[in-house]
Amino acid sequence: MSAALAGANRDNGERRGPPPHRSSASIAALLAALGTLAACSGGDGRPDQLLDGSKAVTPAVELEGVDDAILTEVRVVAPTDRRGTRSASCLARRWSAHPSGPSVERIGVTTESVTFSEANDRGIFGCSHSAGPQDSKRRWCGGAYGRLYDGSLRDPRLDILCGTTEDPVGFVWVTPAPRARYVSVEQPGYAEVYEVAGGLPVRVATVNGVDYDRSAAHFDITEHGASGELLREYELEAFVAG
Amino acid sequence: MRAAWRFAIGFVVAVALTSAGTAAGYHTQFVANNCNWAAPTPIATYTRDASITVALYARHEGYQWGGGCWDDDDRDDSPGDPPAVGGTGGEGGDCSGFTFKVWRETNDEDSTAFHQWWRLRFIHGPYTAARYQAAEGAANYPLSKSAAIKMDAFASGGHIGMIYAPNADGTDQIIEAKGEAYGTNIWTRSYRGNADYSGVRRLGWSQP
Q1: pLDDT tens digit string along A193-230?
Q2: pLDDT, tens digit (0-9, with 9 covering 90-100), for B169-188
Q3: Do B157 and A95 touch (CB under 8 A)?
Q4: Which residue of B has its CA nearest to A169?
Q5: Helix axes B95-102, B48-58, angle to 10 degrees
Q6: How many domains does chain B have?
Q7: In this structure, are residues B84 and A152 in contact, taking their beta carbons and an 8 Å threshold?
Q8: Do B10 and A3 touch (CB under 8 A)?
Q9: Is residue B208 part of a domain?
């Protein structure tokens, strides 16, 4: 893994400080993102809607230790149903990888993604996007590819892309624990919750954890079972690589 | 039951910390001890030949997954780092970071400007090989492989290398950051005839 699972058991209520070298640009990004969210939320920092305009809802179960959770949308799309979907537009990008099986489309508060499994289980790949000043220039801000080694990613394949303001968003794939049903990522003022789906790693985003100078990003993640119970809690430090 | 989960979480964290400690004790702290975060120097002109000179400074300097900092002593000062482990802070670039720095690109994906990143300035840049393959970023342009010349690149979803010189037999001498076990060097490769690879051109080269 190129990402360090920087151990951080927060059960005692303590929280680690920001990672070393987090730049002033990142702090500016945080402030800018907070400003953006305040403009489109009820004023408590929790956004009212997702990127596609649908209403932001909470997960069906309470997630242990997670406040202000917003459930992202997820769709598992069969190859025969791809026409006109996000999956189809992603495949129009320049790829040498060929998809196999269903794809997983996700829509978050300010981001969206598609994940495919590559034929012969060689890897996974997909597209990522965020609402921002650059989004009118292309359908997808970027795409990622991760080769699988014995069925697993060696690193989470960080992409730093577009952004909610002038600053970028970071995307990684998270491989959840076997029993995990939900993956939660801390965002400024809320937690973005992703349902595990399609048997594929979960493409998650951070809107305030990107450190441009280090080509790196920081994610605060929890994983939960079907009843919302906490399974894992960790900080993920990821680097653009390869 | 809850106590059991607390124990499980503690165990996972302990394993993670043990692993992190191993990595921290293993690597050579090359980045921490030698590299900097200086601002790049914008430059007005940059030729393909000049970029070859820049690339050759990195030759024999090693490879680092997620890396982007090297000196010029013709040896890997951080040999044998674990493959695909970013952040260990060793010497060398990885394939995409090496390309970014040799092509003197910027962190601004809308810019085609040339930014000189000094050898000891740690920078990987925002592009992975997959993003180079898709020619993402204003400075990168999709290119027919048959039209590729020196210091154009061939990129796949997982790797990128630049053309040091084409060979008569249709292969190319590729300068690339190949892997931890290989370092950064020039090898004859057949990317031009490999369907997994696409051509990519850095826009804006100056004429010699």
Answers
A1: 999 999 999 999 999 899 988 899 999 999 999 999 99
A2: 999 999 999 999 999 999 99
A3: yes
A4: B126
A5: 140
A6: 1
A7: no
A8: no
A9: no
The residue ranges of every structural domain in chain A are 4-10+21-239
**Would the CB atoms of A144 and B130 count as touching at under 8 Å?**
yes
**Which CATH number is B25's domain given?**
3.90.1720.10
Residue range A9-24: mean pLDDT, rounded: 34
Q: Report phi then psi at A125, rounded to 5.
A: -155, 170
Pick B136 or A24 by higher pLDDT.
B136
The residue segments making up the domain with residue B23 are 2-202
Question: What tokens were used for B106?
Answer: 């910027």
Question: Residues B132-149, buried b or exposed e (16+ Cβ, 10 A)?
Answer: bbbbbbbbbeebebeebe
- Look at phi and psi of residue A126 and say left if phi exceeds 0, alpha if psi is from -120 to 50, else beta: left
Name the strand (E) or helix (H) holding B184. Answer: strand B183-189
Asked whether residue B207 is domain-assigned, the answer is no
The shortest C-alpha distance from B25 to chain A (Å) reads 14
Contact A233 B158 (CB under 8 A): no
Domain-located, residue B76: yes
- Say which residue the tokens 């989960």 belong to: B5
Tell me the C-alpha distance between A99 and A123, whole Å: 10
pTM above 0.90, yes or no: no
Cβ contact B177:B98 at 8 Å: yes
3-state DSSP call for residue A151?
coil
Residue B193 included in any domain: yes
pLDDT value of position A23: 42
Tell whether B136 lies on the interface with A, counting CB pairs under 8 A. yes
